[in-house]
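Appendix B, Record 12. Input sequence as logged:
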Amino acid sequence: MKLELPYLDHLAFKNQSQYKISNYNIFETLYNSLLENRNFQSQNTNIIEIENQCITILFQIFDELKEQAIEEREILFLEELFFHADRLLKEDINVYKARILSYNFNKNDSNFHDKKYTIGQISKQCLDKINFEIKDLIELFRKNALSGKTTREDLSMNSGQVVRKVVNELNKDFNENGILNLLSHYMGVKQTVIGVSVELSVPNSNWWNVDYSVYQRQPKTLYFHYDESIAYPKSIVYLSDVDENNGATSCVPSFNKNVNMSALQFIIGRAIACVGKTKGTKLNSFYKHKYHQTFGCPTFKNDFSKLPNELRFSSHFGWDVIPDSELEIFLLNDEVKVIGEAGTFIVFDGGTLPHRGGLLKSNERVALQVIFGNYNSIYRRLINKLKKYI
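Logged structural output:
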């Protein structure tokens, strides 16, 4: 029997006026057929038909929800949630389509396909070059931390000349060690490193603490989450030695197989983190979102809690696990922690593999957060930029 997600029984998400939706099991069947994808191969017509049906059903679901909304804020909430859910659904389908239409997908490393991650080491030469390039950035981050500036913006950098050099070094190394080839087979499209964030993690940063007052203690699963997109595999590369006390990255490989989560919940859960976050919008004015936490705002949490059980999920569910529940016990028992010396990396599908990291008890962690993407899309962007000067 599969474990239930926390939102069904969590005391902080109880709501007497939940919306209701009709039975949309057909959406599950259609979406999962794309996910499994082995029955389609190169039948592009079938894929397009299923895509259109999924989008139509999602639209119908939200039309039904909006009919039940009363306040203006609730309607705006549902409209924006639909916008992001529709966007992610179309992106998901494009990812599955690339895999279905690619012969490479059938040749994919079965171990990575099943586990969604692999662990390795960048070369000593690559590690030394990167540490040389970022040394001034890390010193700046340390000064910020000492002065109490500990947000992600204060302790990380994802643009500029230094970052571009790091991207180039990683692409060389991941090409030589086979990671780019592995991900290209997995995604069905040639992959490359498209972005890097240089990050310092320190123990006096407490953004990850939850302040729900309904239970006597926080869950031990803080910050377990899915990434918003399944289109961009990622990697965490340690530039300092990492153990259990200074921010080890970890993942839960068998979560999806053991938890009762529908395709609709998977989409809504990733979309919900985007809702009400755009500054200057009317919906944003209704909420006081807390840094990096989905449900730090009580009003937003209440609007989410009105969703029917068939839709309720947050990709950042680690904060919402009920203490001492079977789900908490399972997550902790199944957790795989990446411990290693500088140069150790984990490459994984962050959109479908729950993971967390950077929660420190002592010392510090210097790491790279690496994003992979389609090689051809980067090439096209470069060509488009060059055309402006021709």
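The chain has two domains: 3-106+260-319, 110-258+325-387.
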